[in-house]
Amino acid sequence: MSLLIDVRRHIGATQLDVQFTVAAGETVAIVGPNGAGKTSLLRVVAGLISADEGRISWDGVVWDDASSGEFFSPEQRPLAYVFQDYALIEHLTVGDNVAFGLRARGVRRRRARERAQEVLDVVGGSDLVERMPSSLSGGEAQTVAIARALATEPTVMLFDEPFAALDASARAHARRLFSSMRSSSVARLIVTHDAVEALTLADRIVVVESGSVVQIGTP
Q1: Is residue 86 part of a domain?
Q2: What is the average pLDDT score of the chain?
Q3: Are residues 84 and 148 in the same domain?
Q4: Who has the most CB within 10 Å: 134, 173, 179, 205?
């Protein structure tokens, strides 16, 4: 199983033109200068932006095909997106934030909260369940965002600069948490400016410049 990305999309001054795959269980880091189109690529994969040309598919199931007009909305794609600012819902507790995606998919409240607690236990956030987002540190907020992403059991996870806003201690914890996910079958796509993170966390590195892939290799 793999995520196939073969898309063209004009976004502002950037002409996105990328082709590569991400296998189940693989972590691929996307690196490149500011304005290269890295975050735009994640948004296209997530279905927040449609492709002008090309297609995106998972295990043969087409998510976006510009030629046929086939398009899965973000809710229809079995993926989770961890945004750079974590995008926690301020008026919900941590437990309800983690359960939010499940509730949106029709899971009953009690089961959704049970699943939220299970995932928080796994990522080391079991004591955060009744806290409000405004009371969390950067590292804690990221832990919650990752727990929310994992709760829906996605096949693909997208991370946009997941360590950028963290201090050294929180970053070390986040790297350990991220590394622990490498044993799963989830395909992971991570945007980062940090070469050390790309080298230590990724199975492959994709270098993007001016919207195009200029190099793909292993650390």
Answers
A1: yes
A2: 91
A3: yes
A4: 205
